[in-house]
Amino acid sequence: MTDAPWLDDASSLVDAFRAGERSPKEELQATFDAADQISLQQQMDKLLWEDAYGVTLFQFPGLTFWDENVVTNVSGNTFVPYYFWNFWEWEPVGVEEETE
User: For residue 41, what are the domain limits?
Assistant: First the structure.
């Protein structure tokens, strides 16, 4: 397969894919049939997983607990599993703001 853009017509692109000369991505760009598009996307997904593309290598486990009677606006975040990630939004309960 080549990385060069396809300069011929769409049907010859499909023929090239079926002959092993083009990738599922290139055929996906040339087909309008929804069932064929899904099949091609599944093929691409399989190829990506075979290469371990996007696989999480390690995820820190995390738990976040707080007392809503003491602090508000605490929230969890799947991508940042430690509890201080949004501390700038926390607000203490029952504390009046000082006015100047």
Answer: 10-50
Q: Considering the entire predicted model, what is its pTM?
A: 0.38
Checking if the pLDDT of 25 tops 70, the result is yes
How confident is the model over 49-78, as pLDDT tens digits? Answer: 777 777 766 666 666 778 889 999 888 776
What letter would DSSP give residue 6? P
In a domain, residue 92? The reply is yes
Find all residues with CB under 8 Å of 76, minimum gap 6, and list them. 62, 64
The total domain count for the chain is 2
Closest CA to 25 of 10, 44, 50, 48: 44
Separation of alpha carbons 60 and 6, rounded Å: 43
> Contact at 8 Å (CB) between 93 and 70?
yes
Secondary element (H or E) of residue 25: helix 24-28
On whether the CB atoms of residues 22 and 12 are closer than 8 A, the answer is no
pLDDT of residue 87: 85
